[in-house]
Amino acid sequence: MRLVGIGLGTPDYLTLKALRALEESDIVYLDCYTSIISSELIEFLRLRLGGRLVLAERSDLEEGVAEIVKRAKSMSVTVAVPGDPLMATTHVVFLEEAVKEGVPFEVIHGASSITAAIGASGLSSYKFGRIVTVPKNAGEESLKTICRCVEENMESGLHTLVLLDVADGGLRAAEALGSLLMVAAEMGGSFGPQTPVIILARLGYGDEFRVVCRASEAGGLSLPPPPHVVIVPAETRSYEREAVKALTVRGGELLDTYRPTSRRRARAERYIAKTSGVLSKLAAARNDAETSKILELVNSYVEDARHFLDSGMLDDSLIAISYAEGLLDCLRIIGRVEFTW
Predict the structure, then answer these.
(1) What one-character-per-residue DSSP string does 54-71 give?
(2) Tell me, which fold does domain 263-333 have in CATH?
């Protein structure tokens, strides 16, 4: 029993190992419902596999799990999945059933739209939070849950990867963003019409398209058909902004001045202002050489905190200003200076 990832969009993303596994199989169930598969890839597999290729829909792969695994007891069975076979929890049930039935299994991983989207955006992979999916015909509560997740990620300084439903031809970025903006307007928060978003269309295909625009402007874009992916960025660092500009068609400059509302940013600004005020008063006083040297170090940490804040490195800014506060508190405790916060 094999689960084989067949990569992105076209036959070009099939790995040699995946292709070899498909050709060695007695029967290959091609998952045609968890992602959009190009006619080019289907035709390629038909030419290679002939009658061994079965185009499997949702009912085949959900209700028919037990039957497929039983077949694997007497023949070589493969379930071919767009992207990576274990990115969607749908396919884990095959492994669970195989273990229960004592059927050996192998997983062959492939290029996933999730990793491809993060890489194609230019944003740091270490700064992504919880992933969300917008279904077609999503209800208000579902959309509110998605918006809350976007807000929570942004507050934590994390970008949000928004996957869009692929059923019935796929959900377009403009449709998804339009629905989310309507709900977001009722909820309030940082996400709104002016929020920059990165839209990635047809990753892995010859006509893939990458653009940055304001969320409200998505409807005016001329995009190729789905699959589409949307990324809602949090505050970005300079190296991310440069990468986004290099990898997208246009609009990357929107991130240059983008500073979403954040309690962490407000806290850093407040601490820097408070510490700077104390430091300016102490600098005017006469201090011994050792105390003056420590105050210079405090000033260096304050300048670092400002630099990190301007660069969008909020955690680093808070750490730097906490060092400055700590040194001032130490000086006060040992009686070298007097001040109140």
Answers:
(1) EEE-HHHHHTTHHHHHHH
(2) Substrate Binding Domain Of Dnak; Chain:A; Domain 2 (1.20.1270)
